Amino acid sequence: MTITQAGLLRTGGAAAATAGLLFMMVQTLHPAEVVTNVATPRWAVVHDLTMLMAILGLLGVSAVYARHARRAGWVGLVGFLLLFTWLVLVSAFTFVEAFILPLLVVDAPRFVEAVLGIFSGQPGEMDLGLLAAAGPLSGVLYILGALGFGVATIRAGVLPRGAGGLLVVAALAPLAVSVLPHSFQRIAAVPMGLSLLWLGLALWWERRVEVTGSVHDRDSGEVDSKRWSA
C-alpha cells in the first residue's frame, strides 16, 4: 500500500470528523461529576469515548493545520499548538478519571472528590496544590486555541470559513455560559464539535475528490498540475 500526502490528509479529515461527533456525544452522556458515579459502567463508557475523541482530535487538528499551514500564519500555528496541548491535557486527565479514580473511590473518596472538582468548579476539601491549576489552564488553552485556529482558518480560506467561524464561537461560548450550572455549560461544546465535524468532512471530501480525479487523469493520460497547487 502506497502512503500519500492526500491519503494522510484524508485520514486526518475522517479523524477530525469523528472527534467532533464524539465531542458532542460525550457531553450529552456525561454523568454528574460526583464520587458515586465514578465506578459506574456509564462513567467508564463516557471516559473511554472521551479518550478516543482526544486521540482522534490530535490527528484531526494536525491534518487540518497541515492543509492550510502556509496560509495560516503565526496565529494559526499558535492556535494549533494551544489546541493540540489542550487535547493532550484532556487525554491525560481522562486516563486518570477512567482508570485510576474508580480504584480509589472506596479508599480515598476525598481525593476523588477533589480531582473531580478541578473541572466541575466544585473543589473538594483536599488541597491538590499545583494540580488544581489544570482546570483554569485547560480553559485558557481551549479558548485561545479555538480563537486563534478559527481566525486563521477564516483568513486562510483553504477550508470552509464557516467552520472557522464556529471555532471562534466555540472560543466565546464558555464565557457566555459561565454563569450557568456546570451541567448546562456542556452545551458550549456544541460549536467545537460541529466545527471539527465540518472541517473533517471538508478535508476528507476534498482529498477524496483529488485522489479520484488523479486516478481518472492518469487513466486518460492527462495530469492536472493545478489540482495539487492549493
TrEMBL record:
What UniProt keywords apply to this chain's record, in alphabetical order? Membrane, Plasmid, Transmembrane, Transmembrane helix
Q: Is Hydrolase among the key words of this record? A: no
Q: Where on the tree of life does the source sit, at the highest rank? A: Bacteria
Q: Would you indicate the residue range of the signal peptide?
A: none
- Residues crossing the lipid bilayer are 7-29, 49-66, 73-96, 128-151, 163-181, 187-205
What is the official name of this protein in its record? Answer: DUF4386 domain-containing protein
What phylogenetic lineage does the species belong to? Bacteria, Thermotogati, Deinococcota, Deinococci, Deinococcales
